[in-house]
Amino acid sequence: MKRLHVHVSVEDLPRSIGFYSALFAAQPSVVKTDYAKWMLEDPRVNFAISTRGRKPGLDHLGIQVEETNELQDVYARMRQAGGNIIEQGHTACCYAQSEKSWIDDPAGIAWETFHTTGESTTYGDGTGENVARIAHAKQSACCVPSVEQKQAAACCND
């Protein structure tokens, strides 16, 4: 069985833990000084937050598998999707030992596919994933409105 993975970079971890705990009606299953993770069953998602991103917002998405053979199936789909695949292999990341690979989708969002094999006492150094992992570090599209335009458009007092 597979699980969607979402990783969001945050500035204020305690405040964010409070917010997401209320939103999910659940406490995180892992809490560190720079990281928290919820392993939710409904919806089936591995939702993580950390203070490790370059700026707040979506860090990356992913597909977590429970069995090694499922990982090979997902790797095959990544090859079929096309693009540059970063085969990271066995690594320590997010306080876990995992086997993983990365790919960017057409919008430039980094997707990781991984099988967690155990716990780690460290967050990990990002070796092999820094090229793909930070979704918002990619060059932005030419047609994205600036912050000023978004604020003006959001105003309804015209």
Name some characteristics of this structure:
4 helices; 158 residues; alpha+beta; globular; single chain; 8-stranded mixed beta sheet
What does this protein structure show overall?
The chain is about 25% helix and about 40% strand. It is of the alpha+beta class and about 160 residues long. Strands 2-3-4-1-5-8-7-6 form an eight-stranded mixed β-sheet, covered by helices on one side. A hairpin with a 3-residue loop joins strand 2 (about 30) and strand 3. The chain is globular, with a radius of gyration of 17 Å. The relative contact order is 0.17. Residues about 140-155 have low confidence and may be disordered.
- As residue ranges, the low-confidence spans are 138-155
The number of helices is 4
User: Helicity range of the residues?
Assistant: 10-25%
Radius of gyration: 17 Å
The end-to-end distance, rounded to whole angstroms, is 50 Å
Mean pLDDT: 80
How do the strands line up in the largest sheet? 2-3-4-1-5-8-7-6
- Secondary structure: number of strands: 8
Shape category: globular
The string of secondary-structure elements, in order, is EHEEEEHEEEHH
Beta-strand portion reads: 35-45%
Give me the secondary-structure category: alpha+beta
Main beta-sheet annotation? 8 strands, mixed
